[in-house]
Amino acid sequence: TFVALDEAGKPKPVPPLVPESPGEKLRFQEAVARRAQRLALADERRRLAETHAEPNHGAPNHGEQAEQGEP
């Protein structure tokens, strides 16, 4: 990560990137799409992790069955 600094060494705002050529505009839009996909995938993984971390809601635990001599 880069931070722009003023003359006193303090962080200062950086002007936004403005794509100008057709190639720059295409790359910028592709980056926006990749970011959206990456965030959606991370959200889905988080949701699945939370779902699988919940109790089994009465489903048998195969480890307990094996300890009790059941198949």
What would you say this structure looks like, in words?
The protein is mostly helical and 71 residues long. The chain has a domain of 37 residues. Helix content is 54%, strand content 0%. The protein contains 2 helices and no strands. The chain starts with 21 loop residues before the first helix and ends with a helix. The relative contact order is 0.06.
Described by strand count, sense and barrel closure, the largest sheet is: none
Molecular shape = flat
Order of helices and strands: HH
Helix fraction bin: 40-55%
Over the alpha carbons, how many angstroms does the gyration radius reach?
25 Å
Give a count of the beta strands, DSSP E runs of length 2 or more.
0
Mean pLDDT: 85
Q: What's the tally of helices?
A: 2
Quaternary status: single chain
Q: Give the helix/strand class.
A: mainly alpha
> How many angstroms does the end-to-end distance come to?
55 Å
| Model regions low in confidence, pLDDT < 50 over at least 5 residues | none
Strand content is: under 5%
Throw out a few tags for this protein.
2 helices; mainly alpha; single chain; 71 residues
Topology:
Layout: H1 22-53, H2 62-67
Summarize the structure.
The chain has helices at 22-53, 62-67.
